[in-house]
Amino acid sequence: MWWLAALGLLVGLILGAAFSLAVPVEYSRYTAMAILAALDSVMGAARAELDGEFDNRIFLSGFFANIVLAGGLTYLGDRLGVELYYAAVVAFGVRLFNNLAIIRRRLIARMGRGKATRGDLTPAPRIQE
Fold first, then answer.
1. Dmax of the chain from CA atoms?
2. Tens of pLDDT along 86-102?
3. pLDDT digits (tens, 9 = 90+) for 33-75
4. FRET partner for 60 with CA separation of 20 to 30 A, picked from 49, 69, 122, 127?
5. Chain centre distance of CA 65
6. How far is CA 18 from CA 24, 42, 85, in A?
7. Are 32 and 70 in contact (CB under 8 A)?
């Protein structure tokens, strides 16, 4: 089913290139947070798939929960006059880089065909979203 994700990505890139969409400045933080939260969920799903633990219900619930939480922190921060969205930027950023590192190690181990074992890849604590 990886081809379905690749097809969706290709269609999204074509639509994005074909239509010029400008996000108003007052919504730019919200859009950035939604994109960051979505990327975090997608990277977590890719990692879970490589580990053989992917569950569509967990992915979808985490995807929308991350977006709502990031948007809520941004909104609350705007109302309080505090930059609360930095908390989400840091949390999602750390998780993105952590998942990317683990995905990279898993792919290198698969390409090496036995040169690295699962024990050689010290996994980070599992945060499933």
1. 54
2. 988 999 999 999 999 99
3. 988 998 899 889 889 988 889 888 998 999 999 999 999 999 9
4. 122
5. 12
6. 19, 24, 31
7. no
User: What's the chain look like in SS3?
Assistant: CHHHHHHHHHHHHHHHHHCCCCCCHHHHHHHHHHHHHHHHHHHHHHHHHHCCCCCHHHHHHHHHHHHHHHHHHHHHHHHHCCCCHHHHHHHHHHHHHHHHHHHHHHHHHHHHCCCCCHHHCCCCCCCCC
Core vs surface per residue 62-77: b (16+ CB within 10 A) or e = bbeebbebbbebbeeb
Q: What is the pLDDT of residue 114?
A: 58
| Whole-number pLDDT of residue 64 | 92
**Does residue 113 surpass a pLDDT of 80?**
no
Residue 35 to residue 48: CA distance in whole angstroms: 20
